[in-house]
């Protein structure tokens, strides 16, 4: 199964484009940072990943601001260039910003 769920922040957003079939498409770069347990030890994890959304999801993704956090769901595939990994976003929901007291 190829399924990814990632809570991440939009750090870059390209201009909305259209596929050859005429569907809206939007490319973004997402950043994630957290601490996980690996082999019984805490580990800091930080990454950036290229992501894309097509159709209605692209239109909704365009509404997110750079710096806004969301919970993204989708799958991994190769980038259009054939090199590297692309996160194909199928759905997402905004994560409310909470400030520390």
UniProtKB/TrEMBL annotation:
GO terms for biological process: DNA replication, synthesis of primer. InterPro entries: NA-bd_OB-fold (IPR012340), Primosome_PriB/ssb (IPR000424), Prisomal_replication_PriB (IPR023646). One of its GO terms (cellular component) is primosome complex. One of its GO terms (molecular function) is single-stranded DNA binding. Keywords: DNA replication, DNA-binding, Primosome. The keyword DNA-binding applies. Homodimer. Interacts with PriA and DnaT. Component of the replication restart primosome. Primosome assembly occurs via a 'hand-off' mechanism. PriA binds to replication forks, subsequently PriB then DnaT bind; DnaT then displaces ssDNA to generate the helicase loading substrate. Belongs to the PriB family. Involved in the restart of stalled replication forks, which reloads the replicative helicase on sites other than the origin of replication; the PriA-PriB pathway is the major replication restart pathway. During primosome assembly it facilitates complex formation between PriA and DnaT on DNA; stabilizes PriA on DNA. Stimulates the DNA unwinding activity of PriA helicase. NCBIfam families: PriB_gamma. This is Replication restart protein PriB.
